[in-house]
């Protein structure tokens, strides 16, 4: 994320005639205490005939004394510097215990040293002290108890920022503090000097700081608060610094109300502004003109997730996407891409629903907000359905799903969007949302229909909806059945209750009164206790002869419909087992591969419905109820889309007649390409959006840009941060789904060799699996590679590939095709995880063409190895890569032997250097096939996936540490308080060591005294290796008794002198022992935490035992494991090295 800038500051005095210039003092060199790295500095002075002497003043500031030998017409001072604006956390400091809370007292010895900075600021003549306004301001802002010192400083700085407005003031000098308070207006130097006076008034040592302020334009506007300058900006600036014991001098900028960060580059810090002036000096009397300028230019930017590509790069990417689309269309591939982007909350990064749990109230609220936004864009004449989602083993209830549905032919699916509502938004809040008001009671001044919709619905509304649908179908009113909650459940609850209040007499049989008649009487008495319907039911199904609708005549033993226990929609609690002794007939599912077409008017023609006996009829029904004040309609399963559309039309007519907005629930429509769908579902820690497939790069780009934008407005984001500053994606997937506009048009069904080509190429290039994946990889992950699960799988996969080729009669355009289910059978049992789960595989073919279910015959292949990228343009580069590979393999099937990577798969291919070399080969292959895919387009993924930890330069050598990938193991089953659990061991981490410019025969790199097995990396002076280490020591982990390996101390050892030439230190946690309470709020703070853990110092001093290193290298050379990887756990145990285990 580093940005390097070039700053040029020019000050020019032009005199009307040549004049003698007296000595000048220039304070325009960054002060020693600047926290911003200054990589280069220069000062050019005109006239050239001068002498310069660099000095330091009494306060440690650099100053240049200029002496001029000849008169001159111009005095021109140009300062240039190169600054690395790496993130600085202004709050990353330690405070001495006695100064943790304010007020505190400086120790006597320290107070003597700080005396010039504690001296009160004089409002008038020397010794006059602060003015009345400053003293009054201090009195009006007491600390209020004993707050934390840092909190008090924040409050003080922001209070002054509010009280004094900023202005540009060209007059020389600094206003007195009282003058600034009286005017409530001042320049940056005026506000800074006022803050110094106030701080000293509180007994705090403070000084005046002048320097450069560099502000860079943000990559994207802020969702909350100001967005900063629209363009990059720099100028001379002033602020205050306060001395806090332990932390040292802390910069406070009252102009912005913020603490000083990496953009504040101090030039001088002194007790008084007079001694901080940038330029002081004199000339003989003469008329002069002053001119000055400050410019800043970006000279280097690491790829970052907020701006992954420049405009030029993005133009090339879109041009390549258009070219790939054109070739794809010309080849008649018919490829569509869908996906499952995932999002997390901006406001809550630690709650269970945003870390581990699948559901939660805040997640429902954010999902509903996103659904409303997307519906206005994609489905204004469609409908929103709140329905049951997936039900995973071990979860007590199924998950929910919000589906947006609209017709592909743009014919309205639902014409009254005002009659659709949200089950999770209170009615009053919904009214406020519709009218832009704050949440509260309904506004009676709003239109009458809106006020009416905000009122709670009643049971009569539910009955009226069902009755209207029944009448429209020509069914008798007797088919509108009331459904009731089960009163017998009250008895069950009482029987299960502990000892205490006895059961009421009327709720039980007295001893000795048990008989058949008594039981019947008790049942009738209890069953009559509930007489208010909970819902209304219309049994409804399609006739088997395609003759339209029918309604089954349900006859139940209890004489009425009694719902089963629960709080789910009534449509899911119908007593289906009580309808008939006979099992309803199983109707064959229509095969999605058979394309249907709409009727002339967009709906099916239907004769009047008939009533049928319930014995052999499907047990499906349309249900309406009022739940939480909302009218809810539950749609039954319908196998034909035309029939589904007809039912929706009838429901809308009924809802319009009743006049209450409705929540549509129930079963999804049948899968059909004539209906577009976008759904939002919960997943552990994330919200998942299943987007509609698109047929072109441009269409998908527009879709994803809109989705990311609307998700941000719904306060959802694509980034997560760990406590230590680790920056990651959502933790959920961004699976890419390949298919066709219809299952029959799927290129993966029409050309099975396409799938074989992709599997082969992916297996040969591990970068396609690991560069875009999440942190959890390996054989027990959510998307293991085909060669990660079992050792023999490649042997069997080669047989499967050969058999597919035989069945298809070849590959490419010459292939005759095979029965689609044969491809499923050939690969299904190989594309699995360790347990045989076909869904948890990098290539999931569950929905390609399964003979087991029509819903598995969609012609889809899901690529599950892609994690959610933080920026939509990065997602589009992923998409472009996949589209380009599909195009290549369609035009020229890829055949090559599968590679037995062995230990290298989880060795070298988990190091960024080798992964990037591998993905560069992929890009080169695409270019060789005529696809202009630039390898640099993948740089943002490299920086996001493998952030640089730090770099140290030692003479001609450079040592770099970079994050690498470490597989996490799923442990064995363990018994916990809540049941059986399997923990994931994330206690081992890996980093890459890269050494450039070192003589291989002379220098070694060690980590904590163990030799790092550096290997040549394709260039003569580059060596790379990996280090695995125990980062933390949880009780549930592999080898839990092995202690942590950190800090990691790296040395570059000169074997000739037997000394360390230098090195660096990497800490897993804050080296000062600081414990953070919460994750970082953004990527900037996350990077500052990571930066703090690297130190370009800490090498081993004294002689190094080279013989001992040689012995360790000999042991390592004969040890098993991946070449080029040092495992510190193994070095401390198996190698027999004495040390702390």
Overall geometry: globular
Beta-strand fraction estimate: 25-35%
Q: Into which percent range does the helicity of residues fall?
A: 25-40%
Integer count of domains: 5
* Distance between the first and last residues' Cα: 37 Å
- Count, helices: 26
Label the structural class. alpha+beta
Rg calc: 37 Å
Largest sheet: 10 strands, antiparallel
Number of strands: 49
Integer average pLDDT: 89
Question: Are there runs of 5+ residues with pLDDT below 50, and where?
Answer: 428-454
Describe this structure in words.
This protein folds into five domains: 3-85, Immunoglobulin-like (Sandwich), CATH 2.60.40; 97-261, C8orf32 fold; 324-341 and 734-939, no CATH class; 342-431 and 673-729, no CATH class; 947-1134, no CATH class. The chain is 26% helix and 25% strand. It is globular and about 115 Å long. With 1141 residues, the chain is of the alpha+beta class. The strands form eleven sheets. Strands 16, 17, 18, 19, 29, 30, 31, 34, 35 and 36 form a ten-stranded antiparallel sheet that branches. A six-stranded mixed sheet has the order 24-20-21-26-27-28, covered by helices on one side. The chain contains 26 helices and 49 strands. The longest helix is centred in the N-terminal third of the chain and has 20 residues, at 311-330. Residues 428-454 have low confidence and may be disordered.
Topology:
Blueprint lengths: L2 E17 L4 E3 L10 E10 L3 E7 L5 E7 L3 E13 L23 H6 L1 H4 L13 H8 L9 H15 L1 E2 L10 H7 L1 E2 L1 H14 L4 E10 L17 E12 L3 E6 L4 E2 L4 E7 L8 E2 L7 E14 L9 H20 L4 E6 L1 E4 L15 H18 L4 E6 L11 E8 L19 H9 L12 H7 L4 H15 L7 E4 L3 H9 L19 H12 L7 E5 L1 E2 L6 E5 L7 E2 L47 E4 L7 E7 L2 E6 L5 H18 L3 E5 L8 E9 L2 E9 L2 H17 L2 E2 L2 E2 L5 E2 L6 E6 L6 H4 L1 H13 L2 H4 L22 H16 L11 H8 L15 E2 L16 E3 L8 H20 L20 H17 L10 H7 L2 E7 L2 E7 L5 E8 L2 E7 L2 E9 L6 E5 L2 E2 L3 E2 L5 E9 L17 E7 L4 E8 L16 H10 L1 E2 L10 H13 L6 E3 H6 L8
Parallel strand pairs: 7-8, 20-24, 23-25, 27-28, 45-49
Antiparallel strand pairs: 1-6, 1-15, 2-5, 2-14, 3-6, 4-5, 9-10, 9-13, 10-11, 11-12, 16-30, 16-34, 17-30, 17-31, 18-19, 19-29, 20-21, 21-26, 22-23, 26-27, 29-30, 32-33, 34-36, 35-36, 37-38, 38-41, 39-40, 41-45, 42-43, 42-46, 44-45, 46-47, 47-48
Helix pairs in contact: 3-6, 5-6, 7-21, 9-10, 11-14, 15-21, 17-21, 19-20
């Amino acid at each position: 994320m580093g940005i390097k800038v070039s700053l040029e500051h020019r000050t020019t005095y032009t005199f009307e005639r040549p004049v003698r210039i007296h000595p000048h003092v220039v304070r325009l060199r960054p002060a020693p205490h600047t926290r911003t790295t200054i990589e280069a500095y220069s000062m050019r002075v005109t006239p050239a005939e001068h002498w310069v002497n660099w000095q330091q003043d009494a306060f440690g500031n650099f100053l240049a004394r200029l002496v001029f030998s000849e008169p001159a017409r111009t005095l021109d001072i140009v300062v240039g510097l190169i600054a690395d604006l790496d993130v600085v956390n202004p709050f990353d400091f330690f405070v001495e215990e006695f100064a943790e809370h304010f007020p505190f007292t400086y120790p006597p010895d320290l107070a003597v040293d700080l005396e010039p900075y504690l001296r009160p600021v004089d409002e008038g003549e020397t010794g006059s002290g602060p003015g009345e306004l400053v003293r009054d301001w201090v009195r009006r802002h007491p600390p209020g108890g004993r707050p934390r010192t840092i909190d008090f400083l924040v409050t003080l700085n922001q209070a002054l920022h509010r009280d004094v407005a900023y202005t540009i003031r060209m007059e020389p000098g600094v206003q007195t503090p009282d003058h600034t308070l009286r005017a409530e207006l001042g320049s940056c130097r005026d506000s800074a000097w006022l803050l110094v006076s106030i701080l000293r008034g509180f007994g705090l040592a403070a000084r005046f700081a002048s320097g450069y302020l560099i502000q860079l334009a943000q990559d994207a506007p802020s969702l909350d608060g100001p967005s900063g300058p629209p363009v990059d900006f720099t100028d001379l600036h002033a602020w205050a610094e306060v001395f806090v014991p332990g932390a040292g001098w802390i910069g406070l900028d009252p102009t912005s109300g913020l603490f000083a960060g990496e953009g504040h580059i101090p030039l001088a810090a002194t007790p008084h502004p007079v001694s901080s002036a940038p330029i002081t000096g004199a000339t003989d009397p003469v008329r002069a003109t002053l001119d000055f300028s400050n410019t800043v230019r970006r000279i280097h930017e690491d790829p970052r997730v907020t701006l992954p590509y420049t405009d030029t790069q993005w133009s090339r990417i879109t041009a390549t996407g258009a070219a790939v689309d054109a070739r794809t269309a010309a080849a008649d591939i018919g490829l569509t891409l869908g996906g499952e982007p995932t999002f997390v909350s901006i406001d809550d990064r630690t709650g269970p629903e945003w870390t581990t749990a699948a559901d939660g109230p805040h997640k429902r609220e954010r999902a509903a907000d996103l659904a409303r936004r997307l519906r206005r864009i994609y489905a204004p004449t469609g409908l929103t359905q709140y329905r049951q989602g997936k039900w995973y083993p071990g979860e007590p209830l199924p998950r929910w799903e919000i589906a947006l549905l609209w017709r592909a032919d743009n014919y309205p699916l639902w014409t009254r969007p005002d009659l659709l509502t949200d089950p999770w938004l209170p009615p009053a809040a919904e009214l406020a949302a519709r009218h832009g008001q704050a949440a509260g009671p309904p506004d009676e001044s709003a239109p009458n229909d809106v006020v009416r919709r905000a009122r709670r619905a009643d049971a009569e509304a539910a009955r009226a909806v069902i009755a209207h649908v029944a009448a429209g179908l020509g069914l008798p009113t007797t088919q509108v059945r009331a459904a009731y909650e089960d009163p017998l459940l009250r008895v069950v609850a009482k029987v299960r209750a502990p000892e205490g209040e006895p059961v009421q007499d009327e709720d039980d049989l007295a001893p000795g009164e048990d008989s058949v008649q008594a039981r019947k009487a008790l049942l009738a008495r209890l069953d009559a206790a509930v007489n208010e319907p909970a819902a209304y039911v219309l049994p409804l199904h399609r006739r088997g002869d395609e003759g339209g609708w029918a309604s089954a005549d349900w006859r139940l033993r209890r004489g009425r419909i009694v719902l089963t226990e629960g709080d789910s929609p009534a449509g899911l609690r119908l007593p289906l087992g009580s309808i008939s002794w006979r099992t309803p007939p199983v109707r064959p599912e229509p095969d999605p591969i058979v394309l249907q077409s709409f009727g002339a008017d967009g709906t099916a023609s239907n004769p009047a419905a008939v009533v049928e006996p319930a014995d052999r009829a499907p047990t499906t029904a349309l249900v309406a109820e009022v739940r939480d004040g909302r009218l809810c309609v539950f749609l039954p399963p319908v196998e034909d889309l035309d029939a589904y559309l007809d039912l929706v039309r009838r429901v809308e007519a009924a809802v319009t007649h009743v006049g209450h907005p409705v929540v549509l629930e129930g079963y999804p429509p049948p899968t059909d390409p004539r209906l577009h769908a976008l759904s939002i579902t919960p997943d552990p820690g994330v919200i998942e959006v299943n987007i509609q497939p698109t047929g072109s790069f441009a269409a998908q780009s527009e879709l994803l840009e809109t989705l990311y934008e609307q998700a941000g407005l719904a306060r959802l984001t694509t980034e997560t941060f760990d406590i230590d500053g680790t920056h990651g994606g959502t933790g959920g997937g961004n699976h890419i789904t390949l298919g066709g506009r219809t299952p029959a048009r799927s290129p993966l069904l029409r050309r099975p060799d396409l799938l074989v080509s992709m599997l082969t190429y992916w297996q040969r290039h591990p970068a396609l699996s690991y560069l875009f994946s999440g942190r959890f990889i390996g054989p027990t992950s959510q998307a293991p590679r085909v060669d990660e699960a079992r050792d023999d799988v490649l042997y069997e996969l080669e047989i499967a590939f050969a058999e597919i080729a035989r069945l298809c009669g070849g590959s490419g355009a010459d292939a005759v095709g095979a029965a689609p289910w044969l491809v499923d059978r050939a690969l299904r049992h190989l594309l699995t995880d360790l347990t045989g789960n076909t869904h948890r595989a990098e290539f999931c073919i569950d929905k390609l063409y399964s003979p087991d279910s029509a819903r598995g015959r969609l012609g889809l292949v899901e690529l599950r190895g892609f994690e959610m990228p933080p920026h939509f343009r990065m997602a589009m580069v992923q998409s472009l890569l996949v589209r380009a590979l599909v195009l290549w393999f369609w035009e020229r099937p890829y055949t090559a032997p599968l590679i037995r990577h062995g230990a290298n798969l989880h060795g070298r291919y988990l190091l960024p250097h080798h992964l990037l070399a591998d993905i560069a080969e992929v890009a080169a292959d695409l270019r060789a096939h005529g696809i202009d895919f630039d390898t640099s387009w993948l740089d943002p993924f490299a920086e996001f996936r493998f952030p640089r930890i730090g770099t140290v330069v030692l003479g001609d050598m450079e040592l770099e540490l970079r994050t690498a990938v470490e597989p996490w193991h799923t442990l064995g089953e363990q018994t916990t308080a809540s049941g059986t659990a399997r923990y994931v061991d994330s206690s081992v981490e890996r980093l890459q060591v890269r050494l450039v410019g070192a003589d291989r025969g002379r220098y070694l790199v060690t980590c904590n005294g163990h030799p790092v097995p550096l290997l040549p990396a394709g260039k003569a002076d580059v060596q790379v290796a990996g280090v695995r280490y125990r980062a933390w020591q949880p009780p549930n982990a592999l080898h839990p008794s092995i202690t942590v390996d950190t800090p990691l101390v790296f040395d570059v050892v000169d074997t000739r002198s037997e000394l360390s030439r230098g090195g660096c230190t990497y800490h897993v946690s804050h080296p000062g022992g600081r414990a953070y309470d919460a994750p970082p709020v953004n990527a900037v703070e996350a990077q500052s935490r990571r930066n703090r853990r690297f130190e370009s110092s800490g090498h081993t001093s004294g002689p190094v035992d080279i013989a001992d290193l040689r012995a360790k290298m000999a042991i390592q050379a004969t040890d098993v494991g991946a070449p080029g990887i040092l495992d510190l756990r193994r070095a401390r145990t198996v190698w027999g090295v004495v040390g702390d285990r």
